[in-house]
Specification:
The chain is built from two helices and eight strands; from the N terminus they run H-H-E-E-E-E-E-E-E-E. By secondary structure, it is α+β, with helices and mostly antiparallel strands. The protein has a four-stranded antiparallel beta sheet with strand order 1-2-3-6, with no helix packed on it. A four-stranded antiparallel beta sheet has the order 5-4-7-8, with no helix packed on it. The protein starts with a helix and ends with a strand. It comes from Streptomyces daghestanicus. This is Membrane protein.
Length: 176
Amino acid sequence: MSAFGPVTRQLGLYRRAAPPVVRPFASVGPRLLGRLPAEVAARRRAARRGPRCATAAALVCAVAVPGAAVVAARGAETVRVAAADARSGVRARVTATDRPWGSGVELEVRDGAGPRSCRLVAVGRDGSEAAVAAWRSPQGGGPTTVRGGAAPRPSGTARCEVRTSGGERLVVLSAR
């Protein structure tokens, strides 16, 4: 046991220097016990409230967003025009929609004599011209869909013209 002598001496010094024993668990006071169930119930209510609010918000969005789109679309003027030119072999269909900034235009075109560079020009009722879109038609005359925009509104456009990049008219789409 003499081998443990220094360790025994150190433990004795530590026992004299250490404070008296403290109980590992303090007793719970009556105020804490009275408040605890109420606090747990409040946290559970808050946890149930989150999903309910999210569901209500999703329901409001599901009802309001399509309704707003219907109201916005109701005021928009849409003009659809189609034409074909036997001489050039070009067939085209234009859909022009009234937008806050002018006209949103979608063009579907088939060019049997392609490939060639083309452009769509909107001609106003006053004779002014506005470039709408430019594209290169594919070999073999396959369909091409082009989207573009112009400042004149559909109501102010007399016609649309599909032209080559050199200015030759391929087809004229009269608005009315």
